[in-house]
Amino acid sequence: MIQVFAEVPQGIQTAPHELRMAAAGHQVAVREVDLTHVRDRDSLMMAFLAGLALTQSFGRNWDALYDVLTDPQQFSGRLAVVLCDYAHFKKKRAALAAELEGVLMDAQQSAAEQGRLLWLLAEERDTDTKHW
C-alpha cells in the first residue's frame, strides 16, 4: 500500500483506510468536510465552515476558502482535508465540484510554494458493508 503522507500532495487523492493513524505517524493535522448534504455553494461553504472549525467570520465564498487553506496562521505546515462522500457529491453537483476542485488545486499549489503540505483526500462512505 502506498503511504499517501510519505509523498508530496498531488491533486485529490484517495484517503487511506487507516487515515488518522497514518496522519498521526506523519504529524499531519486532519480536518473532515462532509459533503453528503451539500446542495449548493452556500451549503458547501457551511460544510467547510464546520469541517475546518472556522469562525462565523469566514466569508463563505471561494476567495475566503482559498485564503483559509493558504493562511499559515490558520493551519501550520501539514494539513489533510478529507472530503467525505466526494464521489457522490461530484456526480450530483458536477459544476460545483469543478469550481471547488479549482480552488482546492490553487490552494494546494500556493501552500507548496510556501513550503507547506496540503493533502486533499477523497473518502467514500462504505456502501458495501451491511450492518446486521
Automatic annotation (TrEMBL):
Pfam families: Barstar. Signal peptide: none annotated. SUPFAM superfamilies: Barstar-related (SSF52038). It comes from the Bacteria. Residues 29-121 form the Barstar (barnase inhibitor) domain. InterPro entries: Barstar, Barstar-like_sf. Belongs to the barstar family. This is Nuclease inhibitor.
